Amino acid sequence: MNSTPSPNRVRVVTEAGPIHVTELGPSSGTPLVFLHGVLANSGLWRGVAERLSKEHRCLLLDLPLGAHPEAMHADADLSPPGVATAVINVLDALGLERAVLVGNDSGGALCQLIVASHPHRLRGVVLTSSDAYDTWLPALFKPLELMAYVPGLLRLVALLLQVKLLRNSPLVFGWLSRRMPDAEGAAFVKPLFASSWARRDLGKFLRGISPRLTLLAAKQFSNFQTPVLVLWSRDDRLLPVKLGERLARDLPKARLELVPDAYTFSPLDAPDVVASAIDSFVRDLP
Fold it and tell me: For 180-190, what is each residue's pLDDT tens digit?
């Protein structure tokens, strides 16, 4: 008998456009809001959420970062601050006064922007391997930002990413995940190839990325008196552990834990370890 809980899909209309939310777990559970990064979607967190959903209310957002299912408004502000505002819009629409925010990759950078702009909305924060400080994007992926300025180039990238060998190379997912499922990798890049609006929305986000934003957010860390779990991948090849160590030092109520045998996408590489760490963290929240 299949014990995996059936997810509930909700379409939330924000100021920027529709954001789809996958919900697992009891509505009475502690709300955990999961954010992914560029060229990923809520599927990144599905395995972790399934493990947590017996007791916690898991809300997995499909952010407009290239693998989302529906177009945002044509005039939407999809810069990182604009997407962070859309996350707050989702919390408002779902009636969540406070939630535990869980981020990975650029989704973790968005968490940091929200720590700086809306600290009162957070009961806790979990940062898995994430862009931070002067690293956004990692050097290997900086060309992706430049491509967003050249018309048609993101479509060419999307076409190339349909080739499994290229998709799994270090230039794409090879150094993000040790164990990227083929189906997941294909699902991450399919919308970018199939939909011009996915490329348009991603381009807006990429053109807005700047380490200036994460460095500015970091100036507010000393004022953030909410518990933080820095859950970093020990073997991360793109976002080194020293970034996680710095976050754990600068956030007053943070602690650092390392995830073994995982790259940046630890929710895919080590879902059991990630889910267990998040569960323990949430149980200890005041």
Answer: 999 999 999 99
